[in-house]
Amino acid sequence: MSTYVLIGGAGVFAVHTARYLLEQSTTKKVICVGRNIPRGDHYTLGVGRGDPRYSYEQIHIVFEQDRLAGLFDREKPEVVINYAALAYATSWANSYRFYDTNLMAVVRMCEHLASRDYLRKFVQIGTSELYGSVDRPATEDAPLRPTSPYAVSKMAADLHLGTMWAARKFPMNILRPSNAYGPGQQVWRVIPRAVLCALTGQKLPLQGGGTVEKSYLHSRDLARAIVMAADMAEPGKTYNVGPEKSVTIRHLIELVAAETGVPFESMCEIVPARLGEDQRYWLDSTRIREDLGWKPEIDLRAGIRDMIAWGRKYLDVIKTEETEFVLRA
């Protein structure tokens, strides 16, 4: 029986991981830690409601490290999973905020945990953006070529954890997922925004015509990979987590259009490409498949249908949400 603390616990990926963990009989407790007060069901999906094993703690990991350390020592989690990140590639304004959250908060958190004997595994959720634009699937040993302050900050955290394992045997794993999505994702992200536009008749701004390629992974498949790594992976290892193929953003939007019955041409407007955006993210996930037996179970079309069902269920609420990213502390 294990207690899990999920940092970044108000985000969509932690929500799906909490749901997955609460389905397991071996889970003693799930504690989600987030900077915001709990949100509505359109984001939380009602996960944990009525389950005494679940709790949510509002703690800002940059400004309230003392409260976070107190939570760790009170609850003594065997597993800590860190999703928390300012995660947006357009990170050229106020870049220091990305380093505060994505690097310095991680360093301080892990320095505290390194001296605690209750910790069995720390799982850091990284990003495929570290590899930069690629012309073939990137392995975990591929050169790191970050092209934004966001990606540099995530790379620095990974490198720091690598030194903690090498020098102090800090029990960690790093998972670098492809672009993940799922019901409850904020509507400024491309798939939920596309769903919102399809269901309301709004125009989706398609940056650069949608020629950029990325590989997309459903949040539940990501949750499975993370829990498998926490429970089974050899400490110190890094794993890529993604599907075999990448798709263009245009193809992604075409799937949303087809599944909602909305003509693609009436759904989108072409706008300039994002500054410095990489052309293709694509991962080789052979290592996690061979070591842990993981592979994705939800294909992209089924995942899009899942997103559309969520959009229809909560349309009255999500159509009032911000559709543009706003940088917060």
In spatial order, strands of the major sheet run 3-2-1-4-5-6-11
Radius of gyration: 19 Å
The proportion of residues in beta strands is 15-25%
Helix and strand element order: EHEHEHEHEHEEHEEEHEEHHEHHH
General form = globular
Mean pLDDT: 93
Distance between the termini: 35 Å
Structural class: alpha/beta
Can you walk me through this structure?
The protein is an alpha/beta fold and about 325 residues long. α1 links the parallel β1 and β2. α4 runs parallel beside α5 and α6 packs across α11.
In short:
With 329 residues, the chain is of the alpha/beta class. It is 40% helix and 17% strand.
Write the layout of secondary structure elements.
Layout: E1 2-7, H1 12-22, E2 27-34, H2 41-44, E3 54-58, H3 65-75, E4 79-82, H4 95-113, E5 121-125, H5 149-168, E6 172-177, E7 179-181, H6 190-200, E8 204-207, E9 213-214, E10 216-218, H7 219-232, E11 238-241, E12 247-248, H8 249-260, H9 264-267, E13 268-271, H10 286-292, H11 300-313, H12 315-318
Parallel strand pairs: 1-2, 1-4, 2-3, 4-5, 5-6, 6-11, 7-10, 8-13
Antiparallel strand pairs: 9-12
Helix pairs in contact: 1-7, 3-4, 4-5, 6-8, 6-11, 8-11
Characteristics of this structure?
single chain, 329 residues, alpha/beta, seven-stranded parallel sheet, two-stranded parallel ribbon, 12 helices, 40% helix, 17% strand, globular
